[in-house]
# Entry
Amino acid sequence: MNFASPLQNVKGVGEKSAEQFAAAGIHSVYDLVTFLPRRHEDFSDVAMIADISPGKKTIRARCEKIATRPVRRGLRITTATLADETGKLQAVWFNQPYRETQLKTGEEFFFSGEFEFNYNKYQLTNPSAEKVSEVPVSTDRIVPTYRAIKGLKSQLVRKILNELRPLMTMFPETLPPNVVEDQKLVSYADALLGMHFPKNPDDIAKARERLGFEELFELLLASQYNKQENAKLDGWHIPFDQSVVASFVKQLPFDLTGAQRRAAWEIIQDFEKSIPMNRLLQGDVGSGKTVVAGLAARQAAHAGFQSAIMAPTEILASQHAETLHNLLGSLGIRVGLLTGSVKGTARKTLYAQIESGEVDVVVGTHALIQETVHFHKLGFVTIDEQHRFGVKQRQELLKKSDRMPHLLAMTATPIPRSLALTVYGELEVSVLDELPKGRKPIATKIWSPNSAAQLYEKIDAEIASGRQAYVICSLIDENPDNDIKSVQAEYKKLQNSIFKHRRIGLLHGKLKPEEKDAVMQRFAAGEIDILVSTTVVEVGVDVPNATAMLIENADRFGLSQLHQLRGRVGRSSHQSYCYLVMSDSSKPSQRLKEIEKSNDGFYLAEVDLKLRGPGEIYGRAQHGALNLQIATLADTKLIARAQQSARSFVETGQDLLQYKQLAKQVQQYQRLTTLN
Ligand code: ADP
Ligand code: MG
# Structure
């Protein structure tokens, strides 16, 4: 038997269980030994019944009495009296009638379970039970807990792994030997043994360190290689022209911030290099990223290149088109908008203009690169607020241009610096860590729903002084089953009573793109006083005259999401306000208190990371794709170590292909990580 053997060859695996394993994606011995436990429970101390205390406990006892009774449909309770030489206690199982047959033999068993106060008495709940005469796998040890496999008892999974234990000790090393040595890691084989058969907590810690390191090392190595590969590509040379930049800056209605100047300068320098730019522009909400992209597009246009700007929503695309038109139009730069709502002849004309180069800057949604849009000479691509832009999309871009265009990804998701390394490892990063002058911090206040009337007065006063407001709700349809105020109900309520004298607009994701656009246009033009909306306004929308935001059921939103939403106000020199209305008048959560206290996106991201952990936050977008099983993105020390090893591996020119398993993983990550 070897690691490639099918599971059926292992003692204890029948045809049926092999099928069940297969359904869970476990086919070979290799698959099973690398099927790692999610957690461990320490049942290694055997307690005497006389001095047992509540908690996870193991006892060594005989079963004196056992009986099963049906309680109601679908619930059968088995109760047993267990005894050792010091005393007796009761054990209870739910829907495990087979315990009767198992325990009636009168033999001595290990029982491991939670000793707790339940149904008015102390008892051992759902304990595992194994004969003392056999090698225990689910009792009397640190017991690993695996992801449930449909139809298979965890006991069986542990037994089969136990069969494979001798083979596991021979598992070949997957990391380069010098890395294992330099980092003082345990071998792969020892890590597996430490996960499946830990003798003490330290075994688990060492195993997790080793396996976590390996995951991060693979990931960081992948970004090193991506960076290398990017460096091999030919980019467009876009020469720096001082006068072009100067004339752009001069006609702006404001002075650029120091951070904007720095970021623009970094981009312009990248344009001059012979390799394509791969840069992230990270800046808190309202820090003015768009104008930086505009400046770069102006530079590109002057050198005869087209720019494409991609936004995640149509609302944002049309808003960007307008902003860029305002920024660049007077300089003779032609801006086009390509979204789903541009149809028929208008669309055909636009296609032709893009192809002939009559349009310099094309703004649109993702469709811009997916569709059959032919550019005349695409030199620069900006991706706004879009985390999913991988190698596939880059390849799409290459099809549209003889060379890889320069890429700028803009994000307001303030990823803590510690994480940026893993998530954006291969990108150059520019940070806008300064807000435009004259911005006043948004005054944020947690609000009880009981005092709604006062709140409406405050908002009405804002509107009376010429400002506008947002009211944010989270659901679209009126749903009597829950108490989340739906946006439609809220809209009707405000329009028909409280704000009868004001102009109210409604915006949600189910409106047609043209309808959304029309509402946004009217709001931006000041023809709507209060915009009642779902979170579709979350990303990027810029209406500087809006200075008040009321968020209903604020406790249901995440911290980062609240920060993003709030960023829709505070975009001018007027004082802005954000009211976080809670679902009920209970005590506000830590999350809400933090957001009330701080306007700093980076600080809030760190807090969020602590409160929820990176898996939650970067769940689908990053963490999920990264597929980290053991490592957590919060482990900055381990990340730094892995980064150091990955750098030195590449710098010393080691041959990746020499390490088969590593190479496979790295190549998989390489496809994922670029601008993900
Ligand atoms: P974000 O970084 O959130 O995308 P925007 O690019 O939408 O921010 O800019 C926010 C607002 O700030 C816009 O109305 C923009 O015109 C304005 N703005 C940008 N830079 C400056 C500046 N240096 N001084 C004053 N206002 C600025
Ligand atoms: Mg923006």
Notes: The CA atoms of residues 234 and 275 lie 5 Å apart.
